[in-house]
Amino acid sequence: MSEHFGYSPSFKRPAEILRMRCKRARSDAGAGSTDSPEQSGSSPTCVRAFSPEPLSGAQNHSGVGIKRRNPFAKIENTYSSKKKRLTFNDATSNPEDSDSSGITDSERDEESSSREGTLDLALSSRLDEAQKQEYRQASSQKSGSLSESDVLLEEEPEDIKSSLLKSPQATAPTAAPVCTQYPADWSLKTRLLLTSPVSLSWAEQLKAQEEAQGLSQHCRAQFSPLPHSPQDPRSCSDLRCAFQQSLVYWQHPSMPWLSLFPRINAERSFFGKSAPWAHDATIQQSLMTEWSVSLSSLYSLLKARLCPYFYLCSYQFTVLFRAAGLGGSSSITAFISPTTRGLREAMKAEGIEFSLPLLEEERRRREAQKQTIHQEEEQKEQEVTCSKLRDTGDGEDHDEDDSDEDSTLSWLKEMGVQDKIKKPDLHTLQLHKEGHIMSLDHKPESVICVQGLHTFTLINFFINWKGVVASSGSQAGLPPTLLAPCAFRGATMHTLKSRCVNVRSQVGSSYQNISSLEITGPVLPSSVHAILTLLRAAQKGNFSAALYTHTPTAVMNIHSTKQQVGEASVELSSCGLHPASIQQLQQPSTLGKTALTHITMNNCSYTWKN
After folding, report:
1. How far apart are CA 541 and CA 607, in angstroms?
2. How far is 531 from 528, CA to CA, in rounded Å?
3. pLDDT at 125
4. Could you tell me the residue ranges of all domains in the chain?
């Protein structure tokens, strides 16, 4: 082994090993016919290069085994460098020169073995191809005729993959649906933050004529057509008038030094402010009288479909009244959130029928789960009973179980102590029964829904119920705030506050100019829709809006319990809203007990988060 420099054996396939063994058997037969060790040593068929082990069955006259060739050796690996390959080629090409240069017999044997190795490699490749062809024929006969697609998948997988990659139908992504409208959101917003890469400066510093025209259009419920894509929004008078029109809302009561929205958990905003009605019963009575007239006026407008909706914001709850035909309901609907057990008991005492939609939905879900579990348990019990009947053949075990249950129920009577045990009174049983209902107080699940004629009873209930006004604290004696998108008796016109700011935001490695518009105040659902519609035209269909929701009103997107009707069943063209806003608010909300938090428009297509 040491005399052959660069020896590096490699792994052979099993087929090649079998071929080597057959060849060794033939060479052993040739070696056995030799008479002298000289002849055996000089024979190229007997002596093999790189043979570390003796040849099986072949021995010389001295009893020492002749070395055989290593089947794992590869002749190509014995000459690694180019210089040695050139030397090997020169020696094989000129045998006379090699003899003259003093080449020994062992080197000649190595040369002949290398030639045999080259022939063996060619033969083994042909044998492998023949074996593969036989295997394919056998598998095709066994499994039947393959389909054309199977042959392609088996023989040309790379071609198929490349064709799929090159196919435009395989690589083209599916187009996302274009949403031209976002779902209806009945929650009140306290703040809107609008951002766009296009300047929003057209929405600030309105001219006196534009402001007056916007207010006039709002009072008369007139809506001028807007340009689809104005070149210069700042010089478009119709666009700026429509923006002023979308900021208007109506409120009662109105006190310039007080912010009367929101009212829940707003004691800090009332602290330290002048409240002349707090200790004067006459002023409180006057405020409540005017408030009752305004509430009655609003309900009359709502019933006549001249007002689409309005909000009643108290210090402990918020009420949304919707006209018939909005939200998919066929009748007037009122949602109250959050509620307490005291409010619900007072409404029951007045004969007002209401429902707890979220609680009823949870009950239905639990009942469905219990029903499925009960059915599974019944099936298991029937299987166990059938197996017992097969084993015993009678029902003695069931009789014993019934007798055991009777004995456990009557053991107190047998001991004579049933009269000494204290039984729970009716009040305790009632509290235990309504414990889960009381735990809903001040939670979103406590929202209640009133429909139909009971909404009129609810209006009278709020006018006469003392709990609608706080009896102590910073809001004592102050009636709830009424908010509506149209005018009503005793209401004051207000406008939302807007402020435009230009900022620089980092996008990747560079900075980009982004214009922002902030709108604060009680933003009504119709105002949100009108503002976003204007931005769609002015900002060329690219903007984003962050919406800050008044938390108690987020749950008002749930469905009412009554049967829903179509959009055209109720006529609402005289309610004072834009036809597009009416069409959106007529759709049943799909948000459930959540509200929209972000709305983004990209290339005139809406995306939103809730």
Report:
1. 12
2. 5
3. 54
4. 14-139, 180-246+496-558+593-610
Q: Which residues pair with 493 in a beta bridge?
A: 250
CA distances to 265, 522, 598 from 339, in Å: 15, 21, 28
Nearest CA to 538 among 197, 192, 193, 231? 231
**pLDDT tens, position by position, 344-390:** 999 999 999 999 999 888 887 877 777 777 777 777 777 777 776 66
Kindly state the tokens that stand for 170: 């395989």
The residues, ordered by sequence, that sit 6+ positions from 556 with a Cβ below 8 Å of its Cβ are 186, 187, 320, 335, 337, 447
Q: What is the dihedral of CA 519, 489, 576, 314, to 10 degrees?
A: 50
The tokens describing 57, both together, are: 């069955």
CA distances from residue 31 to 42, 58, 65, 564 in whole angstroms, order as listed: 11, 6, 11, 103
Fill in the amino acid letter for 435: G
Q: In 3D, which of 606, 584, 608 has the Cα closest to residue 597?
A: 608
pLDDT digits (tens, 9 = 90+) for 412-462: 666 666 566 665 566 555 555 555 555 788 899 999 999 999 999 999 999
| CB-based contact 328:442 (threshold 8 Å) | no
Residue 606 DSSP SS3: strand
Q: SS3 of 112, please? A: helix
Q: Could you give phi then psi for residue 513, rounded to 5 degrees?
A: -75, 125
User: Encoding tokens for residue 188?
Assistant: 């009140």
Q: 398: number of CA atoms within 13 Å, CB side?
A: 10
Verdict on whether the full-model pTM lies above 0.85 = no
Taking CA atoms, 394 is separated from 352, 379, 381, 391, 406, in Å, by: 57, 20, 16, 9, 21
- DSSP assignment of 199-252 equals --GGGSS--HHHHHHHHHHHHHT--PPPPSS-S-GGG-HHHHHHHHHHTEEEEE
